Amino acid sequence: MTAPILSLNGVNRSFGPIQILFDVSIDLRPGEVHALIGENGAGKSTTMKIMSGYLAPTTGEVRLDQRPVAFGGSQNAEAQGVVLIHQEFNLAEQLSVEQNIFLGRELRRGLFLDKRAMRAQTATLLDRLQCRVHPDARVRDISNPDKQMVEIAKALGRNARVLIMDEPTAVLTNREAEVLFEQVDRLRSEGVAILFTSHKLDEVKRISDRVTVMRDGRVVLTAPTSEMTEDAMANAMVGREMSDLFPRRTTPLGGDVALRVRGLTVPGHAEDISFDLRRGEILGMAGLVGSGRTETMEGLVGLRRHVGQVEIEGRPVVIRSPREAQALGLVYLTEDRKGRGLVLNMGMRENLTLQSLPRFAQPFLDRTAEDAALDRAVRDFDIRAPSRAVRVRNLSGGNQQKLLIAKIMQADPRIVIIDEPTRGIDIGTKQQIYDFIHRLSGQGVSIIVISSELPEVIGLSDRVLVMRQGRLMGAVEGPAKTEDAIVRLAMGLDARTEGEAA
Amino acid sequence: MTTQATRASQQARPGHGINLHVLGPIVALVVLIVAGALMNSNFLSYANVTNVLARSAFIGIIAVGMTFVITAGGLDLSVGSMAAFIAGLMILVMNLLVPSMGAGISVILVGMVVALVAGLFAGLINGVLITRMRIEAFIVTLGTMGIYRSLVTWLADGGTLSLDFGLREAYEPVYYGGLFGISWPILTFLLVAILGEIVMRKTAFGRYCAAIGSNDQVARYSSVDVNRVRLLTYVGLGILVGVATIMYVPRLGSASAATGVLWELEAIAAVIIGGTMLKGGFGRVWGTVVGVLILSLIGNILNLTDWVSPYLNGAIQGVIIVLAVILQRESRPEG
Ligand SMILES: Nc1ncnc2c1ncn2[C@@H]1O[C@H](COP(=O)(O)OP(=O)(O)OP(=O)(O)O)[C@@H](O)[C@H]1O
Ligand SMILES: [Mg+2]
Predict the structure, then answer these.
(1) Which pTM does this prediction carry?
(2) So what's the ipTM on this one?
(3) At the topology level of CATH, where does B22-331 sit?
(4) Facing residues of A466 across strands?
C-alpha cells in the first residue's frame, strides 16, 4: 500500500467558542479516490478547507508527504499541488472562462500575456471534460454544470497532485457526472490523490476506493468501499437504521383542482404548458436540465414575463410578481439557494422572515415574534446551526436548504412549488424533507416538485409531468410511473402517452 | 500526537472581543471631542457647540436619507445641486408671491411646500430613471447633478438669487430661533435622525433596504417589491433634501451656483464613516449621525486652533474617510 500524500492527524477546529471538528484523522494516497460522507453540518467542508489551506486547524497537524506543514493559505497549498474545488463556486463571474482558468497564473511571453498558449491549453482542458462552453464566454452567462466543469478545468490546469472536490456533482446531471467520473478515473490512474464528498451514495459506491464517514464533527469510520453497502453507509452517517425513504400517501386525493394552468408560455423557455394540480396533490416535474421546468414555474409566479390562463381554486387570476402570487397563496422555492434564496450575509432570523415580513411588522418589527418563528423553524426543520447568531453564509449547505424551506413556509402557502428540494442534502435530511412534504400534502397544500433525481420525483409524487425543450411531453402516474417511461418522454422518444397531460 | 500552534488564533472570532466596526466611529468622535476641549477652552462652549450642530444639520438631514439609498445598493450624487436648485426655486416663488400675499408666514409656508414638493419630484425622477429605466444610479445622478446645477445658475442668471428683504426677517427664526435654546435645524436633524433610526431598524422597509443591497435577486424571489423600495429611498432622500433646504435658505437668504457644492460628497462620506457599507447591504443611521459630527468637528477644531491650517480640512477629512473604509474591510466576517 502506498504511503499517504496528504493527511490530517488529530485535527480539532473551532469557530470562536464553538468546536466544529474533533480529533479528525484522514489520509489520502496517490492513485486513490477517497470519499468523505456525512450528514449536513457534519464537518466535511471544514475538513476539506483545512486540508487545502483555506482554514488552519485549531490544534492537530496537517501532513504533506509525511511531513507536518502549515499551508498558511490556499495559494501556498495550490503551489504544492493541493487544490480544492469549493462547494460553492469560486469563479470571477465577470471574467471569461479562459481568464478564470488562468487566473493568478497567466502565461506570459516577455511582458505580454501569451494569449495563444492560454487559448490552446484552455481548449485542451475543456475538450478533455467534453465541455462545450466557449473560452470567451463570460462565466456569469454559463450554466451551473458548465461552471462546475470550468472549476474542474481550472484545477486540472494547476497540475494538482491532490484534488479535493466538495460536492462536485450536486449541480450536475447524471450524464455530466459520468464525464466527471471518467476524468476522475484518468486522474486516479495518473497517480493523483482525490477526495470528494457527495450525498449521492450510489456515486460514492461506484467511484471511490475508500470511504470515511463523519458524524457531528468526528470521523466514525474509514473503510474500503468494497466492504460497505449503500445502506451501511447511510446508517453510519445517520447513526441509526434508515427506514423507507419515501413515505406513503395516507390521505386519499380529492378531486378539487387547486391550480389550473392553460397555455402558459414563457417566451424563449416554455410553450403552451397546460396542467391541473389537485388539492393536496404532489405533482412531480421531470425533464433534463435545460428543459424549461424552472423557467415555466418562474413564469407562473410572475418572476418572468409570460402569457396564458391561470386559475387558482376556480378563480381566474393574473400574476405579475411573486408578491401577487404569494397573496394568492402560491409560492416558489428557488433551486439557487445561494444566488436567489438566501441573503448570505444576514442571520437566520432575517432570512426566515424576509418572505413574509409584513406579518411581523405592526408597524414595527416584532423581534420576539421573529425569534419565536425561528425557534419553531429550527425545531420543525431540524436546522443545525452552531449558534443563533451565525450568518447564513456559515451554515452548512444542507442547513441552508432547510432554512430556505422554512422561509417559504412562513408565507402559509396553499400551493408550493419546490425546485430541487434536496440538492446537496444528506440522506437523513432528505427523508425529513420528504416526510415534511407529505405532511403538507396531508394538510391539503398542493405541491409541485421539480427534481432532476428520478428516484425522488417518482418516489415522492402522485403524478409526474415530463418536459422537454420547453414543452410538456406527457404525464405518467400509477404503475406507468417508471424511470424508463420518464426518460423516454424526456428524451423525446415517446409521443404523449396518455393523451392530454391534464 | 504532536500539536502545533497555528495561525487560527489570528483569525477573527465572531462574537468575541471588541467590535471595531461598531466602536470605531464612536471612539473617533470621543477622541475629537477630547482633543478639541484640550486645545481650545471655547470648544465646549454653548455657542460653539450649537454652531457646530446647526452647521451639521443640513448635511446631516441629507445624510440620513443617503444612508437608506446606499444601504439599498444605490447612490445619489445629485443632492448638492438638488439643494441649490430647490433653494433657488423656493426663493423665486416666494419673491413672486410677496406682492400679492405680503411678506409673511403664509408666503413662507408656500415656500416650504414648494421645497418639499420639488424635493419629492427630484427624488422621484432619479428613482424612476434608476428603477424603471434600469440605468446605473451613478450615471443617472451624475446627470441630474449637472442638470440641477445648471438650472440654478440659469434661474439666478449667473448671479445670486436673493430672498426679498422683508421675507428674510420673517423667515430668519427658522434658522436662528428654536425651542429651549436649541435651534430649529438641530431639532429637525435630531427628529429626522431618530425617525431614520427607527425606520432602519424597526420596520420592514429598513430590513428590505438591507436585503436588496445585499442581493436584490434574493429580495425579488422573496416577494419583495424591489423597485418600489428602491424608488422610495430616492424619494425619501429628495424630500429630506427639501427639508434641509428649508432650514438652509434663511441662513444666507440667497442661492447661487455655489450653493450646496460638494454636499453630496460630504453626505456620502458621513454615511461611510458611520459604518454603512458603500456597496450596500448594511446601514445604520446613528453611525451616519456620528459621521456627520466627526466631519464637522474636524473643520471646527482646525478653525479654532492654529496648529494645522484650516485649508487642510479637506485633506484630513479625506484621510478619515479612507481609514473608515479600511476599518470596514477589517471587520468583514471571515468567509
Ligand atoms: N466560518 C464559520 N463560522 C461558524 N461556524 C461555521 C463556519 N463554517 C462552518 N461552520 C459550522 O461548522 C459546521 C460544519 O460545517 P461544514 O460546512 O463543514 O458541514 P458539511 O459537512 O460540509 O455539511 P453539508 O453537507 O451541509 O455541506 C456547521 O455547523 C457550520 O455551521
Ligand atoms: Mg459542505
Answers:
(1) 0.80
(2) 0.82
(3) ABC transporter involved in vitamin B12 uptake, BtuC (1.10.3470)
(4) A286, A474
